[in-house]
Design brief:
Distance between the termini of chain A: 43 Å
CATH class of chain A: Alpha Beta
Helix content of chain B: 10-25%
Strand order of the largest sheet of chain A: 3-1-4-5-7-6-8-9
Distance between the termini of chain B: 50 Å
Number of domains of chain A: 1
Structural class of chain B: alpha+beta
Largest sheet of chain A: 8 strands, mixed
Number of strands of chain A: 9
Shape of chain B: elongated
Shape of chain A: globular
Strand content of chain B: 15-25%
Radius of gyration of chain B: 16 Å
Oligomer: heterodimer
CATH architecture of chain A: 3-Layer(aba) Sandwich
Helix content of chain A: 25-40%
Number of helices of chain A: 11
Structural class of chain A: alpha/beta
CATH architecture of one domain in chain B: 2-Layer Sandwich
Order of helices and strands of chain B: EEHEEHE
Largest sheet of chain B: 2 strands, antiparallel
Chain lengths: 286, 78
């Protein structure tokens, strides 16, 4: 769904995720400012093979909802996608949360490169503990916000996490979301070579190591029940996981003490424990 | 009001011929290549298909070299 010769950096995970949009039928994208906007191109040219509406940050899910309802009134079949980065999600979080609760008929896709990369790498709420950015030059001292868990707490219609490291899994989730109705949220992990400071050819390796270490857990939540995705299932058990230090070492952005690495390990265990509770149907989940 | 001029038109090379960004050029060894398609899946640009690379637009990121299971791709300095 994207033409070559676009403005993405070498090894860009967002452009890779944009290619996968061809899994969704009749897509229309609402896109706030961010790296994605730059990739989509400068007027009068566009690199996107689909309709894109450029919108202000905070309004993304609201615009997507309006478009979706409008198309319904006109009798046009369309899958409206709110395509955000983690920056737009920070700024438009209340609209996102409200949209999830209203069960708007949209697909919210967040490509998360864990900082405001388009404006030169400032820390976002998704930036993990210890990551150096221009606003946290000594390494961030606050843990990341886990948007997947928050959206699960909304008991949203469909929630999935994906990564560019396992593209078939990502494509399957896009395909599935395109066929469902109601609010669908896909959180895509997107390792950014210039921002995370690793060579451009390592995008896939870094993304896979995030899954292998448990720093990124792959799951799908549908009809009130959570299922872990097949590609990442074996890394739920601690003995199959690689140490988080090995994932951290692949990037030059981290400044972590031994205690903080232990804290990251602990938080992974905590996240998996919480996720396991969503494996039971909601009624018995008291 | 005529809105037509306000709408961007989709086209190749919206940012120019990005092949000029390349420091290293991926070269496919056709004898080793089994056209399995893994590089096609993971290329962020979508410019490598069946071991054939569109050098006008390949930015030379090297992801194809990393994901190739046959190790059929090497990176050559431009």
């Amino acid at each position: 769904m994207i033409y070559p010769g676009n403005a993405s950096c070498q090894g860009c995970p967002i452009s890779l995720a944009m290619r996968c949009l061809d899994e969704i039928e009749n897509p229309v994208v609402a896109m706030p400012a961010g790296c994605s906007t730059v990739i989509a191109g400068l007027h009068p040219h566009s690199a996107m093979k689909l309709a894109v509406v450029h919108v202000p940050f905070a309004s993304t899910p609201a615009v997507a909802c309006g478009l979706s309802e409008g198309y319904k009134k006109l009798g046009i079949k369309a899958n409206v996608i709110a395509w955000m980065g983690d920056g737009a999600l920070d700024i438009g979080f209340s609209a996102f949360s409200a949209s999830a609760m209203r069960n708007d008929d949209i697909i919210a896709i967040v490509v998360d490169n864990e900082a405001y990369m388009n404006t030169g790498n400032q820390a976002s709420l998704s930036t993990p503990l210890g990551a150096k950015t221009t606003t946290s030059p000594m390494g961030k001292r606050i843990a990341r916000r886990n948007v997947g868990l928050i959206t699960l707490a909304h008991h949203a219609n469909y929630v999935a996490t994906a990564t560019v490291g396992y593209i078939q899994d990502l494509r399957a989730k896009f395909r599935k979301a395109g066929k469902l109705e109601g609010f669908r949220f896909i959180h895509v992990h997107a390792p950014c070579p210039p921002g995370w400071k690793f060579p451009s050819e390592k995008t896939i390796e870094v993304a896979r190591k995030a899954v292998m270490s448990g720093a990124w857990v792959l799951y799908e939540y549908e009809k009130g029940i959570l299922e872990f995705s097949a590609v990442g299932k074996k890394f739920l058990e601690k003995k199959n996981r690689i140490p988080i230090a090995e994932y951290v070492r692949t990037q030059s952005r981290f400044a972590l003490s031994d205690e903080e690495i232990a804290r990251l390990e602990r938080e992974i265990d905590e996240e998996i424990e919480i996720l396991l509770r969503f494996k039971k149907p909601r009624d018995s989940n008291s | 009001m005529d809105l037509e001029p306000l709408i961007s038109k989709a086209k190749m090379a919206s940012a120019g011929k990005t092949g000029g960004w390349r420091n290293y050029r991926p070269v496919v060894d056709e004898e080793l290549c089994t056209t399995c398609g893994v590089c096609t899946e993971y290329c962020p640009e979508g410019v490598i298909v069946n071991g054939k690379i569109d050098y006008d637009f390949c930015k030379g990121c090297g992801i194809c070299k990393e994901v190739c299971k046959q190790e059929a791709i090497r990176m050559v300095l431009e």
